[in-house]
Specification:
238 residues, alpha/beta, Rossmann fold, 18% strand, globular
């Protein structure tokens, strides 16, 4: 339904195959048809993080590594000219994506009513992490580079929108940790198998693991490591 916002990174690999337990074996990118090895991995990954932390790069790398389509929430949430879509439209779009069996969802929107559902459906939640000063430098660099025409268009940039750097966006970036502290603490508590932690009276992340990463290579290595240690047992069956 939303083909314009979903980037399928699995076209260069064989289709994933589910075993009797419902787990998916996703071939490595570029694998030959006769390649005997398969990489076990999650079916659904939610990537969150501050603006400029590298969410999209991490999401695309994970999608390529595990043969999963990547969905950019910014492309669902914004219309041309940075016009925010009505809440009911955004909710419907998010629900349709979250209900899918296989995805990497790139985007925070932790205050969205759908975040609890997204977290519950995910097999793994990955937070792209970088120092605030690095994030600010990245968002400033891409805004100025886009004005000069020296930067390729980002895959997560909504149609009809151009790179901008308004003060509200800078403030949003600076305050991200403060605004999301409760949610991220709930996710970390789940990962540590602490007692149930609710967010907005809704259980957050009842099955998924939560991991913080520093870049795409780190993300792929960490997820492979989790699944090599038996992380596939956490894969949701619904």
């Amino acid at each position: 339904m939303y083909g314009a916002v979903m980037q399928d990174t699995s076209k260069v690999v064989k289709p994933p195959v589910a075993d009797d337990g419902g787990r998916v074996s996703a071939p490595c990118v570029g694998a030959r048809d006769d390649a005997p090895e398969r990489v076990q991995g999650p079916r659904r990954i939610a990537v969150i993080g501050r603006a400029g932390a590298g969410k999209t790069t991490v999401a695309l790398a994970l999608g390529a590594a595990f043969g999963l389509p990547v969905v950019h929430l910014d492309r669902l949430a914004w219309g041309p000219g940075w016009r925010l879509e009505p809440p009911d439209v955004l909710a419907a779009r998010e629900a349709a994506v979250i209900a899918g069996d296989r995805w990497v969802i790139d985007g925070g929107y932790l205050s969205s009513p759908s975040f609890a559902t997204r977290a519950a459906r995910a097999d793994l939640i990955v937070q792209a992490d970088a120092p605030l000063i690095v994030c600010l430098w990245r968002i400033a660099r891409r805004a100025f580079a886009a004005r000069r025409g020296s930067l390729p268009r980002r895959p997560d940039l909504p149609d009809g929108c151009e790179e901008e750097l308004p003060l509200e966006f800078i403030f949003w970036t600076v305050t991200w940790s403060r605004r999301t502290r409760k949610v991220r603490a709930a996710l970390a508590a789940r990962d540590a198998q602490d007692p149930v932690v609710d967010w907005q009276a809704t259980p957050v992340c009842p099955a998924a693991s939560f991991v913080m990463v520093r870049g795409a290579a780190d993300a792929v290595a960490r997820v492979r490591s989790i699944w090599a240690m038996g992380g596939e047992a956490q894969t949701r069956q619904s």
